[in-house]
Amino acid sequence: MQGDFISMNYRTRIKKIQKYLLEKRQFPYLVASLINIKYCTGFEGSYGYLIFFEDETVFVSDSRYEEYALTILPKNVHFVLQDKDFFKTLQSLMKQKKIKNIFFEEHSITLSQYRTFKEQCKGIAINYGGDVINQLRIIKDDDEIENIKKAAQITDKCFYHILEFIKPGVTEWDIAIEIEYFYKTNGCEKNSFDTIVASGAGSSMPHYKTGAKKIKAGEPVLIDMGCVYRGYCSDITRTVFVKDIPDGISTIYSVVKDAQQKAVDAVKPNLTTNKLDSIARDFIAAKGYGALFGHSLGHGVGLDVHELPAVKQNGAVALKKGMVITIEPGIYIPREAGVRIEDMVLVTSSGHEVLTKSTKELIVL
Ligand SMILES: [Mn+2]
């Protein structure tokens, strides 16, 4: 009876959001982000809008999705078939309900949607609605955590699988394709992002574009990868070496590893994200590599591989039970080599649980 379980879950989620919007007095609230609509309702199509009115929650889509939506929507979401275009439909819903202003989800409405709204919905005022759903998504419920854990486990298995595959002469593409094949044959929908396999000097670019370059002896191979399991993402990075380690790079490896471990060990409720960032950053700076760690320490992971909260110097979000974040410091020597180590960490009531368990010991293949 998995279907029933899932729809009950979404029904509860809709109720929770309704309650939250009532407290904030943010009705009606228009959600245009498809990933947020999926979070709220389970709908996985490519077109639709969700509107939280005070008296009901309405999902609007076109005829392509009518049958599907009616099958999967939670019982407390009312389906409305779009009439010509969405904003015309919105206008008539607002007219029926005699409502003269609306809150827009901020990050998902484009300028062209705004223009159409102004043309079709004359007399209705727009209010900035923030990004309420993204904020709620920060805390994962038990079902979400189970899926994220499973995604992390598959990624760990994939890491050990790929170790047997990395050798001189194999291209970065070969490795990336093998990773993707592993995911798809182990119950995943897809990669959570384009796999990064960065060898040699390419590893000094934090978001290197994987290519046809062949792996050579003596090179680092930085692998940043993740999968999607039942909609939920994983994200892990390891840096391994082929045959030999370049001069000085083993020192950098141990600095990154220790910085990462110190930050992981510190994760617990109420620690703020900027303080967590500082734990790794200050350690790396004290070892003399501060200028070579440019990016933030980590990010939330869930339905999106990068979501709230950001773990960086600017902005302090207090960690809470149920958050899942990455911790991924790196040191990058331009045109030479880079090392990054990344794990996913769940915040628990008393501390944390590391979800990715692949070894961080120095590996020379
Ligand atoms: Mn990451």
Describe the structure concisely for a colleague.
This protein has 365 residues and is α+β, with helices and mostly antiparallel strands. The protein is built from ten helices and 19 strands.
Give a written overview of the molecule:
There is one protein chain. The chain is an alpha+beta fold. The protein folds into two domains: 2-136, Creatinase/prolidase N-terminal domain (Creatine Amidinohydrolase, Chain A, domain 1), CATH 3.40.350.10; 142-354, Alpha-Beta Complex (Creatine Amidinohydrolase). 36% of the residues lie in helices and 21% in strands. It is built from ten helices and 19 strands. The chain has helices at residues 2-24, 34-41, 66-72, 86-96, 111-120, 132-136, 142-163, 172-184, 249-266, 273-286; strands spanning 29-31, 49-52, 57-61, 77-81, 101-104, 125-128, 190-191, 196-199, 220-225, 227-229, 232-233, 236-241, 298-300, 307-311, 324-327, 330-333, 337-340, 343-347, 352-354. Strands 4-3-2-1-5-6 form a six-stranded mixed β-sheet, with helices on both faces. β10 (227-229) and β11 form a beta hairpin. Mean pLDDT is 95; it is low at 1-7. Manganese (II) ion (MN) binds at residues 235, 326, 328, 342.
